[in-house]
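Q: Structure tokens for this one, please.
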Amino acid sequence: MEQLKELIMKGNAKETVERVRKLLEGGSDPGGLLQEVMIPAMDEVGDLFQKGEYFVPEMLVAARAMQQGLTVLKPRLVASGIEPIGKVIIGTVKGDLHDIGKNLAVMALEGAGFEVIDLGTDVAPERFIDAIKEHKPQVIGMSALLTTTMLAMKDTIKAIEDAGIRGQIKIMIGGAPIRQEFCDEVGADFFAPDSTAGRNYARNVVTGEA
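A: Here is the predicted structure, written as tokens:
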């Protein structure tokens, strides 16, 4: 199992998939693989990123290896009746087509055991609202890369308030131009400076610590 952790951390997607298959064929518990090996691997990657020892390319390849491993693991998790730890809706706001930061957040959240509904890019407030009503998440995440599009976060939060569903969810925002002051100004609950911080906040929400 330690080998699987190392493969994920090094971003070796092909061998990660093969190792997960072999472990499952050998009788390993799918829930145990996820909780005791794969999630800790991504936790360690996130810690290294926050310490400045890993950078975005290393994060991306590790997250992709994790995702590839999860594609093999997920059917077995479902068959075992193992539920996601929570649900997050995420999207890049209206007018913004950038998705690298959002994709990193998706990978980090999925790697932590969340079900993630990825709305993609250029997401209008109405789509966020419809998704909240349909999927009933605990958290929604909004991303923006441009100073011109980050203002759409304010419009989206206002629309969610007007729809009467603001109290049902926690809202986290992130992206290159976002700062804590802007988060406070638009009424979001959390500013995520990176995908690891966003993952940790979502965990705290579902455990009642946030």
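A few notes: The two ends are 32 Å apart (CA to CA). The beta strands are 86-92, 114-118, 139-143, 170-174, 190-191.
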